[in-house]
Amino acid sequence: MASAKMEFQGRTLEIEQERVEVSTALPQPDPKWTYTDHAGHQHAYGTSGSVTDRYPTLVLRESEPYWCSDCQDEHTDTWLECPLCGEKITPGTYIDTSPKYLPGLTSYLIDGQPVSKEEGDALFAQMRAEREQEQRARTLKDAKARAQHAEQAMREEGLPDEQIQRVVNRMVYGTPEGEQS
């Protein structure tokens, strides 16, 4: 389980998220797979998604229905083949048993009490906005301090006030006109 705990204006927001393991030992399509069939046609893995997306140079074929006496049901078989020469192609696969996780249930607590996702998200958004505002204020303060040193150096060089003001405005506000509303 992953968790985060944040303090804001005397309130504590805790977010806990379960991780769900989705590992498998089953064969998976190999994105590095390439193959040249007997007629010289090149085939390769495309993109993830449907079979036709994964293998864009192949077509999916299906057999006529047949009766299975073992399970007493009708079945069809499917396979991939080259549409140009008709060769049946079995794309490459690989097995990856390393653990993989997806996000699971997320819980929100404010001051130790369970709350809805909306309430948790609202406090989190408020915290983020406050922190961004504090960061902008620090950045502006630092820019003004650098501009003050630059202004002093330019005055010592005897540059005209108008030119100094344009440079200072650009350093602090990003434009020669100064603060934008």
Summarize the structure.
With 181 residues, the chain is α+β, with helices and mostly antiparallel strands.
Protein described:
It is a single chain. The chain has a four-stranded antiparallel β-sheet with strand order 1-2-12-13, covered by helices on one side. It is α+β, with helices and mostly antiparallel strands and 181 residues long. It has helices at residues 51-54, 117-157, 161-173; strands at 2-8, 11-21, 28-29, 34-36, 42-44, 59-62, 66-68, 73-75, 78-81, 88-89, 93-94, 101-110, 113-115. The model has no long low-confidence stretch (mean pLDDT 90). It has two domains: 2-20 and 102-173, no CATH class; 28-94, no CATH class. The protein contains three helices and 13 strands; from the N terminus they run βββββαββββββββαα.
Sheet with most strands: 4 strands, antiparallel
Number of DSSP helices? 3
* Total count of domains: 2
In whole angstroms, the N-to-C terminal distance is: 45 Å
Uncertain segments are none
Coarse morphology: elongated
Biggest sheet, strands in spatial order? 1-2-12-13
Strand residue content: 25-35%
Q: How many DSSP-defined strands?
A: 13
SSE class: alpha+beta
Q: Output the radius of gyration.
A: 32 Å
- The helical percent reads 25-40%
Oligomer: single chain
Q: SSE order in H/E notation?
A: EEEEEHEEEEEEEEHH
Average pLDDT, to the nearest integer? 90
